[in-house]
Write a structure and sequence with these properties.
The chain is built from 13 helices and 14 strands. The protein has helices at about 5-10, 20-30, 80-100, 120-135, 145-160, 195-205, 215-230, 250-260, 270-285, 300-305, 325-340, 345-365, 370-375, and strands at about 40-45, 50, 70-75, 110-115, 140, 165, 180-185, 205-215, 235-240, 265, 290, 315, 400-405, 410-415. The strands form five sheets. A four-stranded parallel β-sheet has the order 9-8-10-11, with helices on both faces. The protein has a three-stranded parallel β-sheet with strand order 4-3-5, sandwiched between helices.
C-alpha cells in the first residue's frame, strides 16, 4: 500500500472541476483511520496502472477477447421501489459499457445478466438462485433495497458467492454471521445521525416525531434516529409505523400534528416521502425540521413536489459536487448514456462495480473465494465520499454520509461542515407562510 503522503499527492493531482474541497474528503477519510489508495481512479493491473476512464486522444484499448465474465443481479425496476432501483441498474450498465470499450476486465468482455425482482424479496431470492444455477454467472452484484438484499444474501451465502450490497444498508444484514456480504455505504441506523446530533441540537430542538414504513430499511433508519434522539436528550413524542406501500398516512400525521414536535423524521423510500410531504401540507403539519430517508435526496422528489420540497432535509450517500476520483467523468458519461442526472443510488451502484473490479484485478482470475477474501481486505477510493473499508463482519465503515436540503428547488449539502456547499435554512416556515 502506498505511503499516505504519496497517495494524497496523487489524488490531489487529479484535476476535476465543479468539486467540493479535496482536502475535506481526505481529511474525513483520515479521521476514519483509512488510507486512500489510488485504486478508485487508477486500477492496478499486472504491475501497470491504467486509467479507469479513457482519456481523450489516448490510444484505443485492445478489444476484449475470450469468454465473457458474466455478472448477475436482480434490481427493482418495477414495483414500489422501481423508480429508485432503475438508477442502480443504469449504473451497472454504464460500468459494463465502459469496461468493454476500454479492453474489458482481465482482458475479457463483461456481460451483465440483470433481472427485475419487482421490489419483492422472495422474487429476488429466486432470481439469484436462477443466476447461479441456470445462468451460471461467474459473480454477482447486489440488488436494490435492504429487504431484497437480506433475502438474496441467504442464497449467495449458500453458494459461496461474495455479494457487494450496492443498494442496501440495514445493519441486520450483517448481524447474521454471513461471511460473504460486504457493504458499499453507511449503515441505515446512521442516516439521521448528523441531522439529530448536529443540526437539531444546534437549533435547540427538544422534541421529535418518528414515522416509518414497516419494512426492514425504513425500520432500521427509524431505530437509529430514535437512538440518536435519546443520546441527544431529545424527547420522541410520536414513534409509529405505517404499512408498506401505503397510500394514506393521514392518521399517523394527525397524531404528529397534535403532538406538535420540533422535528419530523420519516423512515421512507421515494413514494412515501412524497406522500408524507403532500399530506403534511394538507393537514397543516408544521415541524421546524422535516427529514426523510432515500426519497428526499432524489431528483424525483423535487420534480414531483416542486416548491413543496423546499426546506426538507435528507441523508445522501453521494452528491455530484463531491470531489472524488473519476466523479466528473462518471457524471458526464451517465448523462450522455441516460439523458438524466444520476442520483446517489446511481453512484453507489457504480461504486459497487468499481470495488468488484478492484477485487477481481487483485486476484487476477475469476475465483469467487479469492474475490471474497480480497473484498474483505480492500481499502480504496471510489466515486463515493470517504473510502471503501469494511469491518470483520463486512459492514462498511469508511464511507462518509452527507445531509442535503432542498432550497428554492436546488439541493444543497449542509453536513458535514467540511463538505458543505451551502448554509442550512431553518426553521421551516409554516405552510401558510410560504411563497
Amino acid at each position: 500500500m502506498p505511503h499516505r503522503d504519496e497517495t494524497v499527492s496523487r489524488l490531489l493531482s487529479l484535476s476535476m472541476d465543479r468539486r467540493i474541497s479535496r482536502r475535506g474528503v481526505l481529511r474525513r477519510a483520515a479521521a476514519l483511520g483509512a488510507s486512500v489508495p489510488l485504486t478508485g481512479a487508477l486500477m492496478a493491473t499486472h504491475g501497470r496502472m491504467r486509467p479507469a476512464f479513457a482519456q481523450e486522444g489516448s490510444p484505443a484499448a485492445a478489444p476484449p477477447s475470450g469468454d465473457p465474465i458474466k455478472i448477475g443481479a436482480s434490481i427493482s425496476t418495477t414495483g414500489s421501489n422501481g423508480r429508485t432501483g432503475l438508477y442502480q441498474k443504469e449504473a451497472y450498465e454504464l460500468w459494463m459499457n465502459q469496461k468493454n470499450a476500454a479492453g474489458g476486465v482481465l482482458g475479457r468482455p463483461v456481460e451483465m445478466v440483470i433481472y427485475d425482482d419487482q421490489s419483492d424479496p422472495t422474487t429476488g431470492a429466486r432470481l439469484y438462485e436462477r443466476l447461479l444455477t441456470e445462468d451460471e454467472v461467474d459473480l454477482v452484484l447486489g440488488p436494490y433495497a435492504s429487504s431484497v438484499t437480506q433475502a438474496v444474501a441467504q442464497v449467495t451465502e449458500r453458494y459461496g458467492q461474495p455479494l457487494l450490497a450496492a443498494g442496501a444498508s440495514a445493519s441486520d444484514i450483517w448481524a447474521r454471521g454471513y461471511q460473504g456480504i460486504f457493504g458499499v455505504y453507511s449503515i441505515a441506523e446512521d442516516y439521521f445521525k448528523d441531522i439529530v446530533l448536529e443540526i437539531a441540537t444546534a437549533q435547540g430542538y427538544t422534541t421529535a416525531a418518528i414515522i416509518y414504513e414497516d419494512t426492514l430499511f425504513p425500520t432500521s433508519t427509524a431505530n437509529g434516529a430514535k437512538a440518536h434522539c435519546e443520546e441527544a436528550g431529545i424527547e420522541v413524542v410520536v414513534n409509529e409505523k405505517y404499512p408498506g406501500k401505503a397510500t394514506d398516512v393521514s392518521s399517523v400525521l394527525t397524531r404528529v400534528r397534535d403532538a406538535n414536535p420540533d422535528m419530523l423524521i420519516g423512515g421512507s423510500y421515494l413514494p412515501d416521502a412524497v406522500l408524507i410531504t403532500r399530506q403534511s401540507k394538507e393537514l397543516g403539519v408544521n415541524p421546524k425540521l422535516s427529514a426523510y430517508s432515500v426519497g428526499a435526496a432524489q431528483p424525483d422528489f423535487v420534480e414531483t413536489l416542486g416548491i413543496d420540497a423546499d426546506f426538507v432535509l435528507g441523508p445522501s450517500m453521494w452528491e455530484p459536487e463531491i470531489e472524488t476520483p473519476g466523479n466528473a467523468e462518471f457524471i458526464e458519461q451517465y448523462r450522455a448514456s441516460f439523458n438524466r442526472d444520476p442520483d446517489y443510488h446511481s453512484a453507489t451502484g457504480y461504486a459497487g462495480c468499481q470495488i468488484l473490479e478492484a477485487a477481481i484485478t487483485q486476484v487476477g482470475e475469476i475465483d469467487p473465494e479469492g474475490v471474497r477474501d480480497a473484498l474483505r481486505g480492500l481499502e480504496m477510493a471510489t466515486i463515493l465520499p470517504g473510502v471503501y473499508k469494511v469491518n470483520e463482519e463486512g459492514q462498511q465503515i469508511g464511507h462518509i454520509p452527507l445531509t442535503v436540503q432542498w432550497q428554492a428547488g436546488k439541493k444543497v449539502i449542509v453536513t458535514p461542515a467540511d463538505l458543505a456547499n451551502g448554509e442550512l435554512q431553518l426553521p421551516t416556515p409554516p405552510w401558510d407562510q410560504r411563497g
